[in-house]
Amino acid sequence: MFETGTIYSNFTPIVKSPVIAYRISGPDVLDILKKLTKKNFKQDHSRVHFVKLFSIEDQILDECSVVYFKSPKSFTGEDVCEIFLHGSPLIASQFEETLKDFKIPGLRLAKNGEFSYRSVLNGKNSLKQAKAINQIISNDSFSSLEYNKKLLFNGDSVSGLSVLRDEIVDLFAEITAFIDFVDDEEFNFKKIIKKSSLFFDKCHNILQKAKNTKKEKTVCKIMVVGSVNVGKSTLFNKIIDSERAIVTNIKGTTRDVLSNEFVFDGKNYELFDTAGHRDKQGKIEKVGYKKAQQISSDIDHFFILSDKYTTKKQMNLIKRDFNIKKNFTLIETKSDQYQYKSKNIKINHNLDRDIILSKLKISSIHKKYISSKTKKIDFNDEEIVFLENILQYKNDVINESDILIIAQIMRNILDDFSYEFGYINNEDVYDRVFSNFCIGK
Ligand SMILES: Nc1nc2c(ncn2[C@@H]2O[C@H](COP(=O)(O)OP(=O)(O)O)[C@@H](O)[C@H]2O)c(=O)[nH]1
Ligand SMILES: [Mg+2]
Fold it and tell me: Which of 164, 274, 319, 408 has the most CB within a 10 Å radius?
């Protein structure tokens, strides 16, 4: 992957938005800034400037904030600048055209992950730290977020794998010494097998512990149930703000269960709409109803809707079908049309979304099912897979009688750890890691 030259990329999506940001990194940054802004940034490390940008025909492209970071005090360790254009995809395209018009040899669009790649090559981040940046962005549990932040800010030693890496280095050293200076062969061989076995046991125990510390749930799942026509889909659309939401179909059959995630007051929810229950269901409805029943065990809370025509018998059937115990709220719909005498919550489609959500006491429902505590974890998903792979060597070592073969396997394990931590300067490994990154990073 590594090629020199100056690279650029947007690091926000190119969509209509308040801002579209670009990063440029490499030896030509000062020259590019001079051409773009007619100003010299040489003495302006890490300061925000509000400047005009010009095309080569001297047209104003934009007036915006620009920051220059002088090498080596930048993310990549090279000269870097960040440019915060107004969020118009058209301006972004004019901006990129202008960069091309400069005809600077080697100036090109960055490949996925290339900024992070350069930061590792230039010693600004360890490989683990660079991977942590990727995980920070892509994860969706708070515990994983906290762990990856720790990795990024405090370095490799925070990783649960560090201890194991130190041990394998010692073990490998011992095996090498054994091969070089054999005296009491029998005794030493047994000792090495025992130590190797202890090493694998330790890997195994750590792995089990890591797997048992499940990441905490952050999404509260709520399902809307009730007879046909009571207003389930109307409520669903209202809550998920259907104009803006992308409603997902739960994969299944003819009449699928719809679900959508939404955020209210900073908390995450997933809401499920279901096919209604009626006494004589058509085939298609039946399938949808069944599908909803199947996923109901995964649901935290139910909104049971009823209107003037809902009977007690129907309500009981629904509770039974979805195995609803105490985790429900009774809601009467269409309160604009009908008068109800009960004390249940009453709603209608004319109410604002926020009013409906507060009537439904959505925040306290979240509190009831989702803990606000963040669990402490010492591994991310990638590291767990890594440990699983290491454990596959176990039987080969324990059952082997030739010390040279054991030495070779241990060498492989050591290499695996070195790859994981990036201690081997192997471009193939880096290529594999960074090509998974998203653009502009
Ligand atoms: N007057 C009134 N009609 C409603 C209200 N909510 C839903 N409806 C109507 O009731 C019918 C059934 O609604 P829908 O949401 O499709 O019910 P579902 O079968 O439970 O999903 C539709 O004609 C809606 O317009 C409401 O609050 N007030
Ligand atoms: Mg419906």
Answer: 274
